[in-house]
Design brief:
- With 254 residues, this protein is α/β, with parallel strands linked by helices.
- The chain folds into 2 domains: 121 residues, Udp-n-acetylmuramoylalanyl-d-glutamate--2,6- Diaminopimelate Ligase, Chain: A, domain 1 (3-Layer(aba) Sandwich); 115 residues, 3-Layer(aba) Sandwich (Udp-n-acetylmuramoylalanyl-d-glutamate--2,6- Diaminopimelate Ligase, Chain: A, domain 1), CATH 3.40.1390.30.
- The protein contains 10 helices and 13 strands.
- The strands form 3 sheets. The protein has a 6-stranded mixed beta sheet with strand order 7-8-10-11-12-9. Strands 2-6-5-4-13 form a 5-stranded mixed beta sheet, with helices on both faces.
- The two termini are 36 Å apart.
């Protein structure tokens, strides 16, 4: 097992994800500075206390996540849960790397690309604000006979129930998707002539739009739709440096 420096690891993440290209809701990159040398890395979806504790048990020197600790507009005081998480990271000298929209968007290793891969979808183009939405169809060139068939395929793949709204009977060929809380991209997906849109969450307005526009909306869970980017990218970078890497999935029903 090799080692690298914290700065070399940051440079590798930045080179792949190009955070400067994105207008985001929080800082991308190194959020908490740990030890200089990194040998063992853990990845996960969110920098929760449970993940940090699991990383400590795994003797990690660094953690790579999609959802970091700091967000625009949050209370900046270091109290309560924030103090607890930071105290664990600082006490064990663990670096925290977090990339939000840049990890969603990476064309091969990002959340959207990896979700599409899990679902057997091929990307043809991107759509929506900052081109974060992916548009394509089944990798085999076929279609789903009904929206229910697509919903069942997603449930079987992600191992969790989904929320499906829209037409009951319509062939699904052109599929749009954007992981996480991207329900606001639904209108852009409709404008892109998608037959169905897959994301993590649904809000009240999307149910009406799906019914009125005849386009299927499927919410498969924020966490469930974003389980794949962090381990794919962290594993890729760990292999570059010969580091130990472990993905730890902290279950989340949301």
């Amino acid at each position: 097992m090799n080692t690298t420096t914290r700065q070399e690891l940051l440079a590798a993440f930045d080179a792949l994800l190009q955070p400067e290209r994105f207008k985001d809701y929080g800082p991308n990159g190194l959020q908490v500075e740990g030890k200089t040398q990194v040998r063992r890395m853990v990845s996960g979806v969110t920098a929760s206390r449970a993940l940090i504790e699991a990383a400590i048990d795994a003797q990690a020197d660094a953690i790579f996540v999609h959802h970091g600790l700091f967000w625009r507009g949050q209370d900046g005081r270091v109290t309560g849960w924030m103090k607890q998480r930071l105290a664990l990271l600082l006490a064990h000298d663990i670096s925290l790397f977090a990339y939000h929209l840049p990890l969603d968007a990476h064309p091969e290793l990002g959340n959207n690309a990896q979700l599409g891969r899990q679902l057997g979808l091929t990307t043809i183009s991107c759509f929506g604000e900052q081109s974060l939405g992916f548009l394509g169809g089944r990798s085999d060139g076929g279609s789903f006979a009904t929206p229910g068939d697509l919903a069942r395929h997603i449930e079987n793949t992600l191992k969790r129930p989904v929320t499906q709204v829209g037409p009951a009977q319509a062939a699904i060929k052109k599929i749009a998707w954007c992981s996480g809380g991207a329900q606001g991209y639904f209108e852009s997906a409709i404008a892109a002539s998608a037959d169905a849109f897959i994301t993590g969450e649904i809000s009240e307005p999307q149910a009406h739009l799906a019914r009125e526009m005849g386009v299927t909306f499927i919410a498969c869970g924020h966490h469930a739709s974003e389980r794949y980017g962090a381990p794919a990218l962290a594993s890729h970078v760990a292999a570059q440096f010969g580091l130990y890497h472990q993905f730890i999935d902290i279950d989340n029903p949301a």
